[in-house]
């Protein structure tokens, strides 16, 4: 057995141990969600007597919040891509010193603390009547989704051969038609990557939901879990079941789109 084989074996064992440490909270969340009510915090490592009562209760009490989060997340993806895609293409095509200024402004916007943005939006929303509304939360979540999507999409669109769009223009296509028919299909991987991260930003948002909703009419699942903790201290299986249900969409999307994420993330690095 060579030294390189031994090293690979050691690295593999260390990697598996680190992975187990990272995934243990997820396993314990699932395990706790299957425990009988009142037995969650003292549960064993295996759910020997599993029950789905927590999931039934979570769906009945938090199902509406899950749907609200899904609507907000999908709306955030649509609006973020609708704004970021043409903006990213324009920034990749313009040859001006002001492009660098614009990119710097986008980067700076990513550094602004969320609580600052949330407080500013609260004042504006109060005047516009957008508090406690799904459109208001969609626009708020786009404040983080759009800048990130612009940076991801532009890095890929810089690698697009100009001859493709020029050929479409020669064939009689206008700028918009060339953009829709040529640029968007080629940018599929980066679009999926940007859209997925916009979805995750919105799905996991808590700060905007807490700040911009003052009533119970519109309540994303993150805020629902937060408020659930104060009323279900004796029913942790329902709380954990809600957490498991809220994690499923993100897990499914990440698994389904992982090859597109890898291609979209490195696509702009290869010209």
Task: Describe it.
This protein is mostly helical and 271 residues long. It has a single domain (54-267), classed as MetI-like fold (Orthogonal Bundle). It contains twelve helices and no strands. It is globular and about 70 Å long. The two termini are 41 Å apart. 30% of the residues are buried. It is a multi-pass membrane protein. Its main location: membrane. Belongs to the binding-protein-dependent transport system permease family. One of its GO terms (cellular component) is plasma membrane. One of its GO terms (biological process) is transmembrane transport.
List the topology elements.
Blueprint: H1 3-33, H2 53-93, H3 97-111, H4 114-128, H5 134-157, H6 162-170, H7 175-186, H8 188-203, H9 207-212, H10 221-231, H11 236-256, H12 258-267
Number of structural domains: 1
What is the fold-level CATH name, i.e. the topology? MetI-like fold
Distance between the termini: 41 Å
* Share in helix: over 70%
Which residues sit in consecutive blocks of at least 5 with pLDDT less than 50? none
CATH superfamily: MetI-like
Largest sheet: none
